[in-house]
Specification:
The protein is mainly alpha-helical. It has seven helices and two strands; from the N terminus they run ααββααααα. The chain has one domain. The chain has a two-stranded antiparallel ribbon with strand order 1-2. The chain is globular.
Amino acid sequence: MKICPCGSLAGFGFQGVSRDKFSRFQWWGNTQLFLLYRTVVFLFQLGWFLSGLLDRQDDDYFLKLSNWCMLYSTLYYFLALVTSIYENAKEKLNASTHIHSTGNGCGEANVYEASTTNTTSRFPTVLDGSEDRTLGNLLWFHKASWIMQTITMDTLMIVTITYWIIIYPFEDENRRNIHGIAAHVLNITLLLFDMILIATPVRILHALYMILSTLLYSLFLGVVYVAEGKIVYGFLDFKVSPVAGLGTLLALDTVGSIFAHSIWFGIYFLRLKFSQIRDKNKT
């Protein structure tokens, strides 16, 4: 069982993964049930995101990383839904293509005819130029979904741990509400549930995308501080100790990202192991 091509630069990319990994469960092959699951999860997440957005109580909503995580999750589930819709549609189109054969009198087939129309047969070609679903033939939305999955789960892991250990004990009780529970409990619970069920892989070198995204957010915090002098998080007080604040931020960006990604990689590894054990027991 090869987990990922971590020994080469290919580990940063998307090669060696079949597209069906994005349209089925790890445990079952029913793609229509998977599409239903993707639809329900996206609508559920979208509802919580819009509810928190419309019910925001201050102007700092877009400054908090926990709220970015709600957006990240919504984008990830949306891209995952788009991918599932495409793969299901393509599967149905391929299934509707019936090959008819006629014999030559000697028991050999010599004439083949596809029952699909020209429009149907062109559908996959318009999108990706190929009917192939083999390794490495991922489309842009497969890759975007995979990247957003990585960024979402890693960022959410850092946010959840940081919130409950550093922020929650000193947080004003008047600022706690149902949306805070959604951001710091429900969000990661749903993502953990998703990680256990789906077949999409996790590559250890994809932590690079998480590091880049956290550096982008750190740059955003720096711009907010320089432009408005606003401190978003008390433990990152650049006014009291710029060096300590910057050091903490860089540590979270690098060490924190790698730590969070390693946790998810471990969950992925266990998922594969249990799946392998189940498959062996079936035989």
